[in-house]
């Protein structure tokens, strides 16, 4: 693998992504960039000293110019929400950081595929799309990849079946207005309701799925992890590295990533997550999924939440 991946931001998420990439065969070159040079040097040394158990990989702490010829750039920069700080205040702070980063990194790596991870990720993806000047296919927000992973984890535990057999998704924003389109939730080829009935007929000791409880599990997981350990970074790192794997693969895959909407489901000029065809050329387009009228309205409501925030920030 000869891919070069640059990560902007050496906080918990950025450094964990760098470490996870260093243990996989996705990249042969990893560049970590952060304003805190000492933190970068420490992370690089720590990660590099654990790579003797794999094929050689180059890991450096660099400047923006070191991102030249990157295949993928991952942006994780931003600050966490402080006590008493409103969501709008946090959003504007992180937007301002992104506005400083964008011209520097785009100048160095204009042909890279960009993965936006910084929160609020849908707003940040929208802002980057508007100010970067890059084609939209090169811009991919991590979106509800993590939410979808949390959903599949919860469904796997409930039904006692491998996560790889579960095809269910979280749509909308990466936030409280996200929702699960249960119309398209399947375990292998069977809808989850059919699967439940099949398992009951086979004598399985299994309870009927509480959809509201499962939605709450997805919504509250992040907050619970933060309350218990201070931050979330392992699962999002795994999700982003899987996305990197998709971007260097030989064919496209379908994922719930955030990208600009252009009239799909009656939604325009906002970034959020639906089924998206993504691969070595970035985003190829949206994949329509059959949804009920109620589910489409939930998606539109999620879009409105994001648009209301966008209307209050300074681009």
Automatic annotation (TrEMBL):
Regulation: Allosterically activated by fructose 1,6-bisphosphate (FBP).
Ligand binding (NAD(+)): 9-14, 34, 39, 64, 78-79, 94, 117-119, 142
Keyword Glycoprotein carried by entry: no
Catalysed reactions listed for this entry: (S)-lactate + NAD(+) = pyruvate + NADH + H(+)
InterPro entries assigned: L-lactate/malate_DH, L-lactate_DH, Lactate/malate_DH_C, Lactate/malate_DH_N, Lactate_DH/Glyco_Ohase_4_C, NAD(P)-bd_dom_sf
This protein's record includes keyword Plastid: no
EC number: 1.1.1.27
GO molecular function ontology, one term from the record: L-lactate dehydrogenase (NAD+) activity
Residues binding substrate: 81, 87, 119-122, 147-150, 232
The protein's assembly and partners: Homotetramer.
Family note: Belongs to the LDH/MDH superfamily. LDH family.
Function: Catalyzes the conversion of lactate to pyruvate.
Protein name: L-lactate dehydrogenase
Organism: Marvinbryantia formatexigens DSM 14469
Name of the gene this protein is made from: ldh
